[in-house]
Write a structure and sequence with these properties.
This protein is of the alpha+beta class. The protein is built from 15 helices and 13 strands. The protein folds into two domains: about 190 residues, no CATH class; about 140 residues, no CATH class. Strands 3-4-9-6-8-7 form a six-stranded mixed barrel, surrounded by four helices. A two-stranded antiparallel ribbon has the order 12-13. The chain is elongated.
Length: about 425
């Protein structure tokens, strides 16, 4: 142990209560920072997984067509001949996809594309023995759709194989099934454009997204085409990616190459992503108050030590200790408390995060979970440590510099400030 560190530890024991207050604030600041970032990041990542598992990374829909306008050349009184000039004025979107097979083949050639599924949807009326409601029928090729969604793992009753093997089978959302009092094996009627057909519940799924579980019913593609009277085309194409973070760049590339609108998951869910980001920042600022208090407490404690240890500082200077040595002694005191508080805060954060991850909570609406969702990331601990280091060490600089400026002669004469 170096002499400066040994002297710092001796000075540290002179203000045990004050140092313990600073230590406890650092522990709480670091621990709560880790916990809040783990929970907010966990819910955000779970929300993203839900979005990717229901609506895919990219959605292709609506063909883009440049609009043109005729322009007359020459003035009103001009004797010159008239001619037509064409000028692009924005874009026109033609609803739906006319040749989905060709578009699917083209999409599969993009290197980051992991799966492609064409989807056809339209409004229908569903009737059970208890009530009827307006919903939307989604026609899918089940094997293709399983590659771009988590539909297989979202089944909570029944089996996806029953849906695959039975043309008249259907997949209902849990909220829809509860409202209509339907379960696996029950039959119901779908009405579209004046035609009624009977189907049977093959399985019930739950995504946790209310807008999906309440109104979306899945049919086999051939049956959906027949019911909706749309023998060709598709409403949109759902795309999954190997690297989901490249979705905005891939969407722009697809628009340029295919001339169809393409919306990435970041664009579709921009509002919710901004909400999670604001929540993460606000919680970080809130819990950082504990670290700020620790910094202020450290400032006050070191300032008191400087006032009480002026004679000891004068003796050290007389023995040959430089101003840098004196400053280092006081910074070492802050560093010791900071190190102990940070390590203990890490342990507290990890323990509380683990405990919260097992805490029961039921959330439905934007995703489905029955426990707190947490994210284990080393960067939460790094950010917590960086916040503590900046606040505590910055608060310690002023008393350390003040101690370094003390001169032995001023102390003896009683003029030291």
């Amino acid at each position: 142990m170096s002499p400066n560190l040994r002297i710092a530890s001796r000075f540290l024991t002179a203000k045990k209560r004050a140092m313990l207050m600073s230590l406890s604030c650092i522990v709480l600041g670091v621990g709560l920072f880790v916990v809040t970032q783990a929970t907010t990041s966990g819910f955000e990542q779970f929300f993203i997984r839900t979005i990717l598992g229901t609506n895919g990374a990219i959605r292709i829909e609506d063909r883009i067509q440049d609009t043109m306008r005729s322009m007359q050349a020459g003035g009103q009184n001009s004797n010159s001949n008239f001619y037509i000039a064409l000028r692009t004025e924005g874009k026109k979107y033609i609803e739906g996809i006319e040749e989905p097979k060709l578009l699917v083949d083209a999409l599969r050639r993009f290197e980051n594309v992991a799966g492609v599924s064409e989807v056809l949807h339209g409004p229908v009326i569903i009737r059970s023995s208890f009530k009827s409601e307006s919903v939307r029928a989604y026609g899918i090729n089940v094997d293709d759709h399983l590659r771009v969604s988590d539909l297989g793992s979202q089944i909570i009753q029944g089996h996806i194989s029953d849906f695959r093997d039975k043309p008249s089978g259907a997949l209902l959302g849990k909220e829809m099934a509860d409202r209509l009092q339907l379960t696996v094996g029950d039959s119901f009627i779908l009405e579209s454009q004046g035609e009624s057909r009977r189907y049977r519940v093959s399985a019930i799924y739950e995504t946790g997204v209310a807008d999906i579980d309440r109104v979306r019913i899945y049919l086999n593609m051939s049956e959906a085409r027949s019911l909706l009277k749309k023998p060709t085309g598709a409403s949109f194409i759902q795309v999954s990616l190997f690297d989901k973070d490249r979705a905005p760049q891939d969407a722009q590339h697809m628009v340029a190459v295919l001339q169809y609108s393409a919306a990435s998951w970041q664009e579709r869910e921009k509002t919710w992503l901004e909400v999670f980001r604001a929540l993460r920042i606000s919680t970080a600022i809130t819990v950082s108050v504990f670290t700020l208090i620790a910094g202020l407490a450290m400032f006050n404690t070191l300032a008191m030590i400087v006032m009480e240890k002026t004679k000891e500082i004068a003796i050290l200077r007389s023995m040959g200790y430089t101003r840098g040595d004196i400053s280092q002694i006081f910074l070492w005191q802050a560093a010791i408390v900071l190190m102990l508080g940070t390590v203990t805060g890490w342990v507290l954060g990890a323990v509380v995060t683990y405990a919260i991850s097992n805490f029961p909570i039921r959330i439905r609406g934007i995703f489905a979970t029955d426990t707190f969702i947490v994210s284990w990331s080393i960067w939460h601990y790094v950010a917590a440590t960086a916040t503590a280091v900046i606040m505590v060490m910055a608060a310690s600089l002023i008393p350390a510099r003040r101690a370094a400026r003390l001169e032995p002669g001023d102390v003896i004469r009683g003029t030291a400030q």
